[in-house]
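Example 9 (inverse folding). The structure is encoded as follows.
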């Protein structure tokens, strides 16, 4: 399958800006937020972020993560994403000769609103349901499921291998206990 679209890559990268397994987070400081947005070409590095911007970015990321859980197991909640989105107004404008969503504000808020545009683009082109959260409890990494039937459960073979090994060992232990 072809590589994932740019808007999907942006959403996956944003969701993964917190690495739950390693305990790292790219969005712990205002400078970190500005750097992340600039590295992903949504903001000029010279644009400073505020404490409110950082708090909103973290709420937006958590809301996105919770919404993506539903794409895997159907129990995600898009309410936190919608709540964060309410603080990032968009407008309908002509984009490349056709109607498209654009941020109303500039700066950091406008860059964060670009993530909402990416969500809308993913829903519109039906890639949204392919952006999932890894089933491994210790991972929680976002990934793009490029399988034909959208059946992938883990972000990579390593997570799937660990889960399958744990399951095998549990079955063996249960079998040994009954023998």
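The amino acid assigned to each position is listed next.
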């Amino acid at each position: 399958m072809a590589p994932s679209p740019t808007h999907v890559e942006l959403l996956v990268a944003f969701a993964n800006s917190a690495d739950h397994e390693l305990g790292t987070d790219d969005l712990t400081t205002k400078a970190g937020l500005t750097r992340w947005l600039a590295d992903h070409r949504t903001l000029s590095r010279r644009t400073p972020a505020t404490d409110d911007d950082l708090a909103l970015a973290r709420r937006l990321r958590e809301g996105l993560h919770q919404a993506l859980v539903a794409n895997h197991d159907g129990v995600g909640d898009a309410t936190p994403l919608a709540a964060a989105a309410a603080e990032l107004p968009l407008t309908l404008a002509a984009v490349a000769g056709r109607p498209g969503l654009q941020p109303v504000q500039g700066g950091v808020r406008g860059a964060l609103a670009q993530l909402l545009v990416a969500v809308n683009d993913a829903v519109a082109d039906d890639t949204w349901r392919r952006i999932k959260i890894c089933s491994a409890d210790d991972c929680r990494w976002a990934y793009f499921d490029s399988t034909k039937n959208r059946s992938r459960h883990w972000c990579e073979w390593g997570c799937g291998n660990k889960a399958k090994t744990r399951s095998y060992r549990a079955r063996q232990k249960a079998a040994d206990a009954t023998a």
